[in-house]
Write a structure and sequence with these properties.
Layout: H1 2-5, H2 7-20, H3 22-39, H4 42-53, H5 62-78, H6 82-98, H7 102-118, H8 122-139, H9 142-158, H10 162-179, H11 182-198, H12 202-218, H13 222-238, H14 242-256, H15 260-276, H16 280-298, H17 303-320
Helix pairs in contact: 2-3, 3-4, 3-5, 4-5, 5-6, 5-7, 6-7, 7-8, 7-9, 8-9, 9-10, 9-11, 10-11, 11-12, 11-13, 12-13, 13-14, 14-15, 15-16, 15-17, 16-17
Length: about 325
């Protein structure tokens, strides 16, 4: 929250450093990119990191260069350019390995695991995540051990092994609690809730949201707040309360407007809600707006989100007929 309050000052300091102290600018970008992620300002973060890479190539310490590439790869992946992110993350891993920096190697390995998993290579993703987990466990690093466990839980969930995914995410939450990092702990709880929704487990989803909801509201974490609101909407959907679902999504909308990837998710859930509630015209308008603004981004969505968007479009066709939505 203190960093959020000083956001304008941070931008001014970075601008000064880019002009007057290039090495300091690189140091700051390598350290601060996580705040752009937390604020949902992915494009600004990417622009800052790309600018940092253009400053005095070769003069910046190798560890800083590796950190800049790590951040750039992660934010690029969050913006759904997985192929571009893979190239950058592979470079970051090579840089950390050349130093060598064990924690950096573990982080870059895990980020690459998540990226290749989203590109559809589940086998390589599993191997990379297991490698990262071994690095973090050997170092006694509870925070990153929790993160690696959550990545393995996600992979298990995608292949339909819900028992393994539940066990892994529970272990991840325990490690996150032990690490004592509030934002990370809340995110592991939210991931657990999302898996509960995909299992249609309303009781677990409700329990985890009750625990995590107040905590995420207290953090200056835009993606976490949007994620929490979407999960609340999912819980309402499971309970058949479409009005509550719509209100939860509308609460998320103001925070999502500044961040394309999150706005995309909120909008297409609103479109599905409108169709389910019998407001077909509103649903179709939302679908049209989503496809007009996010057409290229939709092609790079997570497979599960793509499936949900395909569901929305299929329901539109069922309700209105193919001819009425031709061209969407």
């Amino acid at each position: 929250r203190m960093m959020a309050a000083e956001r304008a000052n941070l931008r001014d300091a970075l601008e000064w450093a880019f002009v007057s102290a290039p090495e300091l600018a690189c140091d700051l970008c390598a350290s601060l990119w996580r705040f752009w992620d937390a604020w949902g300002e992915l494009r600004e973060g990417i622009a800052r990191l790309q600018r940092a890479l253009g400053l005095a190539p070769g003069a910046t310490p190798a560890l800083v260069q590796a950190g800049i590439h790590e951040g750039l790869g992660w934010l690029t992946m969050r913006l759904l350019d997985r192929a571009g992110a893979r190239v950058i993350l592979e470079k970051s891993l090579a840089q950390y390995s050349a130093i060598p920096d064990p924690e950096g190697i573990g982080r870059a390995t895990l980020r690459l695991a998540e990226c290749v998993g989203l590109l559809g290579d589940a086998g390589q993703s599993q191997a990379l995540a297991e490698r990262a987990l071994a690095i973090f466990r050997a170092a006694g690093d509870a925070h990153n051990t929790s993160w690696a466990l959550s990545a393995l839980a996600t992979l298990a969930h995608r292949r339909g092994d819900f028992a393994a995914s539940a066990r892994l995410i529970e272990e991840s939450v325990r490690e996150a609690r032990r690490a004592g990092a509030p934002r990370h702990f809340v995110w592991m709880q939210l991931m657990s809730a999302d898996m509960a929704y995909n299992r249609r487990d309303a009781a677990t989803l409700s329990k985890v949201l009750a625990e995590a909801g107040a905590a995420v509201r207290a953090l200056d974490d835009v993606p976490g707040q949007i994620f929490s609101a979407c999960l609340a909407s999912h819980l309402a959907r499971l309970r058949g309360r479409l009005g509550d679902e719509r209100r939860a999504l509308l609460r998320a909308l103001p925070r999502a407007l500044a961040a394309d990837v999150y706005l995309l998710r909120v909008l297409f859930y609103l479109g599905l809600n409108a169709l389910e509630a019998g407001r077909s015209d509103a649903g179709i308008r939302v679908i049209a707006a989503v496809e007009a603004r996010f057409g290229a981004m939709i092609q790079r969505m997570d497979p599960l989100d793509r499936a949900r968007l395909d569901e929305l479009r299929a329901r539109a066709r069922e309700r209105l007929g193919e001819s009425m939505i031709a061209g969407l």
